[in-house]
Design a protein that fits this description.
Elements: H1 2-14, E1 21-25, E2 30-32, E3 35-37, E4 47-49, E5 52-56, H2 59-64, E6 67-72, E7 75-80, E8 101-106, E9 111-113, E10 116-117, E11 128-130, E12 133-137, H3 140-146, E13 150-153, E14 157-160, E15 165-173, E16 176-183, E17 195-200, E18 205-211, E19 223-224, E20 229-232, E21 235-238, E22 241-245, H4 247-253, E23 260-270, E24 273-283, E25 295-301, E26 306-308, E27 318-326, E28 329-336, E29 346-352, E30 358-361, E31 368-375, E32 378-384, E33 398-402, E34 408-413, E35 420-423, E36 426-431, E37 436-439, E38 445-447
Parallel strand pairs: 2-14, 7-9
Antiparallel strand pairs: 1-4, 1-8, 2-3, 4-5, 5-12, 6-7, 8-11, 9-10, 11-12, 13-14, 15-16, 16-17, 17-18, 19-23, 20-21, 21-22, 23-24, 24-25, 25-26, 27-28, 28-29, 29-30, 31-32, 32-33, 33-34, 35-36, 36-37, 37-38
């Protein structure tokens, strides 16, 4: 009998990892974004190690905190993805774990935080693994600086994934980037002040730019040519020259169902190439909000007159978002803003060759490609699995070069940036949750706060 007991004891020891140790389940409630968890209502309770709260990075909790996580080749990836906020409402897991202490060990697998490899063995408060779940310490470094969380204590630990003060990245011109200060509450979505900050990439200096009105217009702004457009006998004309046959649209728009139609046109200069963007909208007897455009057409002029761009289907909410010309090729980003009414916002990228041909730049891993700028004579894009508002991958997504063969080469891993620009072959990313502008070439961070 004694031998049997000894054997069972040895078998029990073998089931415990060699470097495992016991940690306490947090004896207090943790509240984050109106969800409360504790050691009595969840399968993966928060823990306390070295007097620091450790939080379980499960699928639901991660996204509720405005993060995204992935596993790839045995490595754990965790990155800010603030667009996930409030997309998920985690429910208590089952079965409930009611133990007061749990077996843990220091995570010994590669861990990437916001695209950077973490030296976990050198951390004072290392990332832990408990029951196959990765636990992160809610230290100032991780909670605030890396994840943009607000931590409070009033007898229970409060985690808030909404910052009260934010800066809206507006635009970049040459070496200068502009940011609008925004004071927001939980439900606010528009700036409450007109203060502007200026970052000069040439000097690395941030200065107060004074007052400036925020521009809410979408996409690039060309020169209006609406007064030069007309429709005669169903033919769209520019300065009396034929552009396209729109008779079917005109006939339908002037029927009993509609009053008529509006027409808007803009001219965009793209290097030696000029592009005309013409949009039509029908006039209904009763106003209908959020309809978008009923018909969109593009025309390009490469020196031999304007002709309609074929091979692209422009939807009701497609807007010309960005234009870049490199080596005789014009790269055009088209963004669909129908997310407000129909689904996720997505961007498509096209290339117009000097001969006027149109090619779409696609990648099977990325359904959303946004044009940022130019580095080393190549377009730089942000490519994500879907629009950030829906789903991103901490592994596959990120920032890429567009090669001559239209393939994508990774430049920098995914981080949650709310504004990007290139200057002097450097890529700058505005990390709103940290209020810093990151120079990806040097790793230097510039504080955008006055």
């Amino acid at each position: 009998m004694k031998k049997l007991i000894a054997l069972l004891f040895m078998m029990a020891l073998c089931c415990v990892p060699a470097h495992a140790f016991e940690v306490d389940v947090a004896p207090y409630d943790i509240s984050f974004d109106f969800v409360t968890i504790n050691g009595t209502n969840t399968q993966y309770p928060p823990l306390v190690y070295k007097d620091v709260t450790y939080f379980p990075m499960t699928y639901e909790y991660v996204r509720r905190l405005g993060l995204t996580n992935s596993w790839h080749n045995g490595a754990f990836y965790l990155a800010c993805a603030k667009s996930y906020e409030n997309e998920y409402t985690p429910e208590p897991h089952g079965p409930v774990n009611t133990a007061a202490r749990l077996q843990c060990e220091v995570a010994d697998y590669p861990i990437y935080v916001n695209g950077r490899l973490l030296d976990n063995s050198a951390e004072e408060y290392p990332v832990l693994n408990c029951g196959g779940i990765t636990y992160f310490p809610l230290t100032w470094r991780f909670a605030t600086e890396e994840f943009g969380l607000d931590i409070s204590w009033d007898g229970r630990l409060g985690i808030q994934s909404h910052n009260e003060t934010r800066y809206i990245f507006d635009k970049a011109e040459d070496s200068t980037a502009y940011f609008f200060l925004r004071i927001v509450d939980f439900y606010s979505s528009y700036p409450q002040t007109d203060k502007i900050l200026i970052f000069d990439a040439a000097t690395g200096e941030v200065s107060d730019g004074g007052a400036k009105e925020y521009d809410y217009t979408r996409g690039v702004r060309g020169t209006s040519i609406s007064d030069r457009l007309s429709v005669s006998d169903g033919i769209l004309m520019l300065d009396g020259q034929r552009l396209s046959d729109v008779s079917d649209f005109v006939e339908q728009s002037e029927g009993a169902q509609y009053y008529s139609y509006d027409m808007y046109g803009s001219l965009h200069e793209i290097g030696d190439c000029r592009l005309i963007d013409v949009k039509f909208s029908r006039i209904f007897p009763m106003p209908i909000m959020g309809r978008g455009w009923d018909k969109s057409l593009w025309f390009i002029n490469s020196g031999d007159g304007f002709r309609e761009v074929e091979g692209i289907e422009l939807g009701s909410f497609d807007v010309l978002e960005n234009i870049l010309t490199i080596g005789g090729k014009s790269y055009i980003e088209v963004r669909n803003y129908g997310a407000k009414y129909l689904g996720p916002e997505t961007s498509r990228l096209f290339c117009i060759t000097p001969e006027g041909g149109l090619e779409q730049i696609t990648d099977e891993d990325h359904g959303n490609i946004e044009l940022i700028g130019e580095m080393y004579g190549k377009p730089v894009v942000r490519a994500t699995w879907k629009s950030e508002r829906r789903a991103v991958s901490a592994v596959n997504d990120g920032f890429f070069y567009v090669e001559e063969d239209r393939s994508l080469t990774r430049l920098y891993p995914y981080v949650c940036s709310k504004g990007e620009f290139t200057y002097n072959d450097h890529l700058y990313l505005y990390l709103e949750y940290k209020k810093v502008l990151l120079d990806t070439a040097t790793g230097e961070e510039y504080k955008i706060e006055l």
